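Much of what follows relies on a compact textual record of a protein's fold. A record is reproduced here so that you can trace the correspondence yourselves:
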Amino acid sequence: MKSLRLFITVMSLLPLSVYAKQTAPYFCFKESQNNNILLISEEEFPKVKTVKYYPYMKKISLKFTHYDAVDTAQGRPSEFHDFYKEIINQKETGTYEIVYQGAVLYNVNYTSKKTKKMTQFDRLYHDDEQIFQKLKQNGVECF
């Protein structure tokens, strides 16, 4: 009887693990005009090699070019601006500027090489619960 209870308990828990979607940690950024969402893998920071756009989730390769350090206040860490070339099909298609201080990423600026248009992505925080739930359901854990 005990073994039957154990078996039923184990079997009832199996679907949870089978259907549970694994999530990956990302720094999430939102563009205000079009609501585009840019993702940077937490595992890659501070040496970012790729970015992704939700919901496409295709990796876009980046190549580091240089950085600028800005002293903010005495006793505080410098603010860094890391610059990367966007590489698609072995061609440079744009530039990303990632702005951070210490372990805090603030925003990302993207400039298209073709149009010269700059798009600013601001850090997505937990005040927009609807977006966070949608991302989490699709395997994206923003922090």
